[in-house]
Amino acid sequence: MLYSTHTHIFTWVVALILFFVALSLFKNGMAKQMKIVHMVLRLFYVLILITGIILFVNFGSIDHMMYGLKFATGLAVIGFSEMVLVKLNKGKSAKGVTIGLIISFIITLYLGFSLPIGFSFLA
Ligand code: HEM
């Protein structure tokens, strides 16, 4: 199960949904509820990492460079997503990190879907 990409995809899709739920709670001034969703989102960061590392360890030798890049951009997505929510919470501008999040997310999707395991419709 963990050698296929389905579990990995499941973890980041749930994280994506939680990210938007946290954003909308923030926009509606529901800071307390947002904190709870943010905590659950952090748990999903860990699950994304675990499932990603399992894939990386098992298939990384197919192409060290591209799998290494996928690892790095995946980490960047998690980092930027965390920074967006923390900055919003602190009342700071999240413009730069939001752009970083969008760009790193697009690159990560492109790399993931073009690498050979699982869906490879961009290869
Ligand atoms: C939110 C962040 C992430 C997103 C959106 C994401 C997205 C994806 C996508 C779309 C795939 C392709 C699935 C398929 O072809 O069936 C994939 C595969 C993979 N991901 Fe991630 N990922 C993320 C984080 C990570 C992290 C942090 C790591 C490393 C620890 C990682 C390692 C991998 C590996 C090794 C694969 C297999 C590549 C292949 O298809 O051959 N990912 N990911």
SSE diagram, text form:
Elements: H1 6-27, H2 31-59, H3 64-89, H4 95-114
Helix pairs in contact: 1-2, 1-3, 2-3, 3-4
The protein binds protoporphyrin IX containing FE (HEM).
Characterization of this structure:
- The chain has 123 residues and is mainly α.
- It has one domain (6-114).
- Helices cover 79% and strands 0% of the residues.
- It has 4 helices and no strands.
- It has helices spanning 6-27, 31-59, 64-89, 95-114.
- Helix 1 packs antiparallel against helix 2.
- The longest helix has 29 residues, at 31-59.
- Protoporphyrin IX containing FE (HEM) binds at residues 5, 8-9, 12, 15, 48-49, 52-53, 55-56, 59, 67, 70-71, 74-75, 77-78, 108-109, 112-113, 115-120.
Count of all domains: 1
Count the beta strands.
Answer: 0
The gyration radius over C-alpha positions equals: 15 Å
Helicity level, as a percent range?
A: over 70%
Shape: elongated
Bound molecules: protoporphyrin IX containing FE
Helix tally? 4
Order of helices and strands: HHHH
Distance between the termini: 23 Å
Uncertain ranges: none
Q: Main beta sheet: strand number and arrangement?
A: none
Q: Estimate the strand proportion.
A: under 5%
The chain-level structural class is mainly alpha
Mean pLDDT: 96
Question: Can you describe this structure in just a few lines?
Answer:
With about 120 residues, the chain is an all-alpha fold. Helix content is about 80%, strand content about 0%. It has one domain.
